[in-house]
Amino acid sequence: MLTASAEYAIKSARKHGNPFRACRQSYFKETKRNLHNTMGGHHLILGQLIDYISGETLDDTLDERHRQGLGRLLVEQKGFAKTDIASRHELEIHTENKCAQLLITYVVKMDGRIAMLVQYGPGSLVTRHRPSLAMARLVADYQVPVVVVSNGVDADILKGGDGSRLAAGLAHIPTHDQLKEISAQHTWDAIDRQRAEMEIRILMAYEVDGRCPCDDSTCKIESKDA
Question: Reduced to 3 states, what is the DSSP secondary structure of residue 116?
Answer without folding.
Answer: strand
